[in-house]
């Protein structure tokens, strides 16, 4: 499934609120690793492509990085802009895509793409990342993937895999990171993985499911899905909470040579 043809911008319209409330953040160990691996220092510019509601951008900015978030969905950008933020340089969000950021050549010490690269056309996006990187800069592709060795996480996964397009989207997402490891404009590719968890009440768990772009929109199907998720919650809840387990995968590679500045 070529997700770049699946309306990746408009299919998230209407989801900004539930996305901001229900999506997991990223483990601090992964952020620390990314900063060390990319050799980033406070004040460096990092471009967060597909920045959504700013979840990843804010984690980067907390480390003193100057974050430019590129996000084509206006509702997502507005939600990110509305978040009060005083823990570092405030991220700056702007319209654009991974294939056409409109940023200056060589502006970035690093380019990151969290939970979004599978929506891009890799053959266009990676050259664009290379163009906006300074010589030797890094690209990092990051995903939270459910760790279904955990019983609750597996039962939740069984429900959401019944959503339209869920299986094909998950398969495409699992393959997407390989592109940076074999692209001729990057070298020193590596994959590192980190454990992560998200504790939720029932409202948060159902919101997590319905924040997916492939969640059912039909009222009857949504009601049925909510009932199935409620049953999973009742099986596994402890004191009104459940914990989703994730593996956070971080794909990194270094720009092979200086961008063409002509």
Indicate the low-confidence ranges by residue numbers: none
Q: Identify the CATH architecture of the domain at 3-144 and 168-197 and 246-255.
A: 3-Layer(aba) Sandwich
Helix and strand composition category = alpha/beta
The run of helices and strands is HHEHEHEEHEHHHEHHE
Per DSSP E runs of 2 or more residues, the count of β-strands stands at 7
Q: How far from one another are the termini?
A: 36 Å
The CATH homology group name of the domain at 3-144 and 168-197 and 246-255: Vaccinia Virus protein VP39
Please report which band the strand proportion falls in: under 5%, 5-15%, 15-25%, 25-35%, 35-45% or over 45%. Answer: 15-25%
Strand order of the largest sheet: 3-2-1-4-5-7-6
Main pleated sheet: 7 strands, mixed
The CATH class designation of the domain at 3-144 and 168-197 and 246-255 is Alpha Beta
Helix content: 25-40%
The coarse overall form would be globular
Q: Provide the CATH topology of the domain at 3-144 and 168-197 and 246-255.
A: Rossmann fold
Count of individual helical segments? 10
Structure report:
It is a single chain. This protein is an alpha/beta fold. It has a domain at 3-144 and 168-197 and 246-255: 3-Layer(aba) Sandwich (Rossmann fold), CATH 3.40.50.150. The chain is 37% helix and 24% strand. The chain contains 10 helices and 7 strands. A 7-stranded mixed sheet has the order 3-2-1-4-5-7-6, with helices on both faces. The longest helix is centred in the C-terminal third of the chain and has 18 residues, at 219-236. The protein is globular and about 55 Å long. It starts with 15 loop residues before the first helix and ends in a 7-residue tail after the last strand. The mean pLDDT is 93.
């Amino acid at each position: 499934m070529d997700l770049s043809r699946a309306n990746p911008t408009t299919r998230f319209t209407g989801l900004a609120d539930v996305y901001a409330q229900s999506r997991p953040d990223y483990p601090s160990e992964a952020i620390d690793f990314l900063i060390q691996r990319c050799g980033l220092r406070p004040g460096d510019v990092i471009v967060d492509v597909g920045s959504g509601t700013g979840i990843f951008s804010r984690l980067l900015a907390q480390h003193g990085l100057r974050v430019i978030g590129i996000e084509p969905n206006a509702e997502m950008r507005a939600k990110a802009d509305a978040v009060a933020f005083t823990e570092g340089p405030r991220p700056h969000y702007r319209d654009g895509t991974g294939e056409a950021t409109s940023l200056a050549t060589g502006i970035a010490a690093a380019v990151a793409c969290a939970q979004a690269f599978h929506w891009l056309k890799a053959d266009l996006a990676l050259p664009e990342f290379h163009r906006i990187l300074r010589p030797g800069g890094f690209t990092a592709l990051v995903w939270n993937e459910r760790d279904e060795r955990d019983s609750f996480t597996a039962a939740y996964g069984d429900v959401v895999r019944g959503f339209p397009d869920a299986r094909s989207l998950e398969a495409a997402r699992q393959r997407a990171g390989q592109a940076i490891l074999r692209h001729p404009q990057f070298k020193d590719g590596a994959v590192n993985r980190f454990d992560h968890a998200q504790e939720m009440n029932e409202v948060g768990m159902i919101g997590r499911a319905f924040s997916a772009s492939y969640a059912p929109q039909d009222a009857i199907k949504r009601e049925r899905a909510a009932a199935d998720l409620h049953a999973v919650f009742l099986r596994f809840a402890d004191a009104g909470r459940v914990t989703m387990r994730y593996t956070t995968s971080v794909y990194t590679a270094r720009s092979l040579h200086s961008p063409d500045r002509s």
